[in-house]
Structures are given as structure tokens and as C-alpha cells.
Design brief:
The structure is a homodimer of 232-residue chains. The first copy, chain A, contains ten helices and eleven strands. Chain A has 232 residues and is α+β, with helices and mostly antiparallel strands. In chain A, β10 and β11 form a beta hairpin. Chain B binds a DNA duplex (30 and 30 nucleotides) through α8.
DNA sequence: CTGAGGGCTTGATAAACATCAAGAGGACGA
DNA sequence: TCGTCCTCTTGATGTTTATCAAGCCCTCAG
């Protein structure tokens, strides 16, 4: 494992407060590995053997039932995933696959569990991390239950706008098929949703979106910190 | 606080492993209080002042946005709620109201946070509890993303059937308006969904449901442990 | 260059779901 | 007892979303 990777991981809120010793033990047992695009990392229903940390690239969490499929979330650097299943030593509820070429850190889940039993600071950091994971899903759930497809798209665009600097221009981070799945709609309907937003000053050019009437878009989207703000 | 209440709370997975001292401190600071039906306990957006434990009655977690409303979950005895907000000292993402007359235990959230910093066993129990909360919402989310209204109803009925003894008969625990909201559908559509299930041997008589073709119902519902099983 | 394939869009159609309106039946208080 | 309110159901209608089919455009390998 490269020193720079190690420092980045060490800097994560989940790991930064744990003891030197405990962190070293964890990292000693871990592997850094590169994966090609579109590779299945986890199948739902299987045990959680590793805690994953995305160092480079992005990972899609998804789920299947009765022939249908749904994207549950995207993981980008530098973030962990399937923490809850690892801690409970339980079966994974979601599948995971790489979107692009990825560099991942794999920490054996038994070591993670051992670490939080040994290091109190780590177990406190886990509590905050899990509480955040929980609240993120709750927000996702609210987003889905309370909003139509067009509204979800409008708010997602405003979110990207904020993240990307707020200068009236946005580049979609994923292709539209994936974006559609994230927004719980079909690619066809995403296309139509963009058309619906045109009167609100949303101009689409491939992956580039420009906004000419942010006020109007916000009036439609009605962003809400209890749904859209990451840190709340 | 009555001794029997105290023992029940002490028996909860969240509290049973913590030290006598820490539990006593927590309980000393707490109040038991009775609330009438349909009383608002928490408004989303407000700080989480207490960790709540439902001792009697049931509580609805719900949320609002732009004039719309959605039920997020039901809490029945003996269970805690808004644990994540309490631990993070954050704003509540959901509102809560009593459905019927309720007896609740209110533990000041500052005391909960102090307790997990002092008692290691408690912080480990919190980790397991939070991981479970997280996985429960993930399952809810999958249920909503992957299934139609009729499918959600069919699976909910099968779930009640299992919980209530599996003898081909079920009594709905809530009125149909609330059940509809839990299933993310309107009361009108719940009524129609019951009609859709009649050919699958589902007979409705007020709150009493009887099943005459469980195999058939299961073929339609396709229950899945990664969505429907509570303990997975 | 050429053809194949994928991403994206559009139109037509169908299914799922919501809304509006009306009415049956039961609970409850005056 | 009567009227009122509430829950639940049903029908008619409209909206939202999905599905199916077709076509455009771009990329890329041969």
C-alpha cells in the first residue's frame, strides 16, 4: 500500500481518531487491489467478507428482485461501503460493481470487528459513521416517497450545481442511463424529464447542463435541507 | 418509573449489556410520560432533545414536503426511536406522532451521548442497533424501488401472517388509511389492491383477512429475505 | 470507408397510480 | 332517534411512469 493512499485512508473520519496501533493492525491485514470496469464486487445475499474503501474510481450499489434492478447509491473516493453488514457479520443487502477502473482497499471484516472491540475511539467513530449512513438512506427514502421524477431530477441538478461551484453550469458525473437509475426512473423518462425542465432554463448538451433561470428551477425543485443537504 | 417498565427497558438489546451504574444514570435522568392519541411528539427539523422508548401504544414516524406527506415507519413497544439524531446531536429528519394513547420513556439526549462515551459495552450495543436501523431502511427502500403497490401489500400480508402465527388468518394492526400510507399508496388504491388479491385467495372482512391460497399468494408476492426478513 | 453496436431521444401505447366525486355503513353524541 | 362524522369502497377521470419500437448520432473495429 502506497504511503499516500495510507494517509488518505487514515484521514477519513472513520479512521482518524483510532490509535496508531489499531490502525496499523487493520492496514496490515488489508489489501489494495485494482479492478476493471463493470466488475461485480459483491452479490447481495453473500456474507460481507471485507469492508471496502474506494480509493479511485466509482462503485455502484444496486439490488435485484424478480427480474427488476435498482441503483441504491454511488460510492466515490474516498469512502467506505458495506460497513453495517461488516459490523453485524451479516449478509449483504446490496450488490456492488465497479463503474470504471477502480482502486479499492479491502479490509477483512473480522479485523474491523476486532478493532472496534479493542479501540474505543474507533467504536465512537463507527457510531457517527453509521448514524450518517442511516440518515443518508432516510433522506433518499424521503426523496423517493415525496417527489416525482422531475422533482428528483431538478433537485439532483441543483445539488450538482452547488457541489461543482455554482456558476450556472454542471457536468453530469455519470452517463444518463446510470443517472436515470439513480433517480429511480427509466432512461426514456429521464430524457423527457430534461425536456420538462427546459422551460425552467435547463439546457442540455450531452453531459453539460447550463442553467439560465436558477430561481425558476428552485421554485420548481423546492430543495430542502432535510432531504438534500448531505451534512445535516 | 415502575419497576416492570424499568426491567423491560433494561432487557432491550440496546441497554442490556451496559453497566448497572451507567443504566441507572440514564434512567435517573429520564421521564416516563403518557401521551394522548394523535399528539405530535417531534417535528422534523427540530433538534433531537430526547431518545424515545415506546413502552405502550404505537408511534408513527412521518415526513412532509411541499404539502405532501409520507409515513416512514411505525414504532411499537418496546423500541427506541430517533437514536441516530440523538447520537449525532442533529436535527430530526422525521416527525413523530402518537397513534393511540402512549406511554413513553424520554431520555435526555445529552445523557445518552455521555453514556456511550463512558460505557464501552453501551457503545458496542449502539453500533449493532444502528447497523440494524440502517439495514431496515435499506430494506424499506428496496421494497419501494423494486415492487409495485400490490406486491408490497401481498408481502406485508404474508409478513403479518408469519408474525401472527401463520394459521391462515390475520388481523390488520392498523386502520387501512395508515396501512395505505405505510405501503406508499392512497387508501383508494389499497382498497383496489385488496380486490386485485382476491383471486389469490385473500378475503377481506374489515380488519380481518383470511388466506385460502397461500401458495398462490406467495407466487405473486415472491417474498425475499433480503427485503422482508426483519432479522437478516 | 463501412457496418455494428451502444447511448440517447422521440413517439405511441399501456400499465400503475392519484385525484375527484359519490355513497354505503358504522360509531357516537346531542 | 337522528344527524354528523369518519372510514372504507367504488367509479370516472387524469397524471405519471413504464414499455415497445424506431431512428439518430457517435464510436470503434475491421
Amino acid at each position: 500500500m502506497r504511503t499516500t493512499d495510507l494517509e488518505v485512508v487514515r484521514g477519513l473520519r472513520l479512521f482518524c481518531s483510532m490509535s496508531e496501533q489499531a490502525f496499523d493492525d487493520l492496514v496490515q491485514a488489508a489489501y489494495v487491489q485494482n479492478f476493471p470496469a463493470q466488475l461485480d464486487l459483491i452479490h447481495e445475499g453473500e456474507p460481507a467478507d471485507f469492508l471496502y474503501v474506494v480509493l479511485e474510481g466509482s462503485v455502484e450499489l444496486y439490488t435485484n428482485w424478480n427480474g427488476r434492478s435498482a441503483t441504491m447509491g454511488m460510492v466515490s473516493p474516498v469512502t467506505t461501503f458495506i460497513l453495517a453488514a461488516v459490523l453485524k457479520d451479516a449478509i449483504c443487502l446490496m450488490s456492488a460493481r465497479t463503474c470504471e477502473r477502480c482502486k479499492l482497499l479491502l479490509i477483512p471484516s473480522a479485523n474491523v470487528r476486532a478493532a472496534f472491540h479493542r479501540d474505543e475511539a474507533f467504536s465512537h467513530a463507527i457510531i457517527i459513521e453509521l448514524a450518517d449512513c442511516y440518515r443518508t438512506v432516510v433522506k433518499e427514502h424521503k426523496n423517493l416517497k415525496l417527489r416525482s421524477g422531475v422533482e428528483r431530477l431538478a433537485n439532483k441538478l441543483l445539488h450538482y450545481h452547488t457541489v461543482q461551484g455554482g456558476n450556472g453550469r454542471v457536468v453530469l458525473p455519470y452517463d444518463k442511463k446510470l443517472l436515470a437509475s439513480m433517480l429511480a426512473m427509466t432512461p426514456e423518462n429521464l430524457s423527457r424529464a430534461f425536456n420538462t425542465l427546459r422551460p425552467y432554463g435547463v439546457e442540455v448538451n450531452g453531459a453539460e447542463i447550463t442553467f439560465t433561470d436558477l430561481k425558476g428551477l428552485e421554485t420548481l425543485a423546492k430543495p430542502n435541507r432535510l432531504i438534500d443537504d448531505r451534512q445535516v
